[in-house]
């Protein structure tokens, strides 16, 4: 492999372009406020911060600090110095512990070397083409006001870019100013690359990189700094004087921006392409939910009119004692079919002719949505110079580079690259697949347990002394079973996600994209079964294997459960609403309250601080930027955000025939979700290291799989679970007004059952 300091021969020819000196390339064109992210000399920029905590007193220190941790930390910092990084150490004294901050900065030579090493893109010329939103164009052509538009100050300029080469430095825009040539986010990328690949012990034992040191609690935190405070200054200043973080807070993270376009270019400038693409997809998805929610709500409201005019429903409610039904359990009594009048009508709100149209509409909606997202994503990745990132630019993961057991010559570039044998990776992947199968079996075991729980609980409630509970035994058992199923789903999700992290890291994938794709695939396969197994059971299996009076089928000695009084579709609608809406409520409450509680606890732990006499007055004025950011929460990435939305996408497409209101609930949730996520990234999270991406990764094939499953699922729901086909058959073969349809759907108990019990009943 090429050693640091070697000069790379490069025959690339860069075309000379005209550049204007006023087009300064840096974090933004706007005047940047003083953010205090500098060393004590007042000029050296802080690019990264490492933090650890240790006891103050010698006695506590001997008990609380591991000698191995101290040795690893000292070795790691020494190697960072050897790699050329500048360091400055700061201390904050508290009552019982000392918090040590190591400020890191990369000098120009280090930045140039690693910028070429990791293929950073730098500007050649400013792009002057205007950026227009598609909806903005449509509204403009129709001469309609655009209520979603907002004038966000300091839009980041767009550039023609290419990969950095040291020997072509003078051709790049802004190369005359070494302080601003590399953007702040690019400096963060360089620092993280160095931190992630620097060993602190035996490489063979995996003692490499800052992530391992964080897991071992050698360091308590490692993060780049935010650019100043997010709070708007008082008194107010002109919008052009705001920092990028303040602009994002004022024009994106506030609740008043709920109907505005997201400032995607500003998000990309501050957080990078990967996070910007997530918010672009989330906003695009939320916008497309609007027509789906309108259609679903209209069909649900039409259901009220159908309930009032439905002939079978009126026949049922007026039947009196005409239809005597067989007992629902072994100890239950006979009952009148007319007693379920209200429940039957409620079922018609979800099971009517309109749901057929909605199923077809949502299947077409899902496919069209994905096709238009591909266009939007391609446009964004081209504009942000990421269209060929995965194919050409993406380098091996730093952990893979450090821990790979051998190197191999790349047949394209001729360079020596780290290599992990494919047969070993295949064996490890097979092991991961076996773990998935075992966890899926666990999900099915819990599903069986919940089925038994519903059946047994309904019997227990029926035997109670209260007539109200006895009459509603099946509904109470079904609803409580749905809530219990939601809790089991959330518990198993947490357990398996942690397990999938361990397995994917063990499989040694070469690039970050491949690593994330395999991790996401593992979790999604499990979550697909975890979330959808219960709805699939209710939709296609519940009530199919109950037997008949006198010969009922049993499971572990308990009679198989039947659908509720209103049919299986209303049971499915209830299950979907409990799981989907319940999960959304829990997640939103957790996202709203949990970060604030954690942030309060973090700040409480770090205060009050005992300062030295000479520093006390100075420190009371304002905490340093690295102290302020240390009080924030660790950014947990986008995995949970994507997973939540993809599971939601499955609910509103795969089972939409059973719940027309699902798109409306999803739309309301997503309006809240965008603001909650924006507030977390801007105000509550430490700044994440920028990551490039050309699309949303493996999530898009997963969405395509869900869209295809939705077509099959809705077809089967209409054919086998809904009453649409039986009604259609009866309308064309018996009576076009559906008169007598209720009696047509019932079966009479066999003769042997009538002789044994001296009565006849229907089922």
From TrEMBL:
The chain crosses the membrane at residues 275-306, 354-373, 433-456, 476-499, 519-540, 646-668, 696-720. It is a multi-pass membrane protein. GO terms for cellular component: plasma membrane. Residues 267-738 form the Anoctamin transmembrane domain. It is found in: Cell membrane; Membrane. Keywords: Cell membrane, Glycoprotein, Membrane, Transmembrane, Transmembrane helix. Residues 39-264 form the Anoctamin dimerisation domain. InterPro entries: Anoct_dimer, Anoctamin, Anoctamin_TM. GO terms for molecular function: chloride channel activity; protein dimerization activity. The keyword Transmembrane helix applies. GO terms for biological process: calcium activated phospholipid scrambling. The keyword Membrane applies. Belongs to the anoctamin family. This is Anoctamin. The gene is ano7.
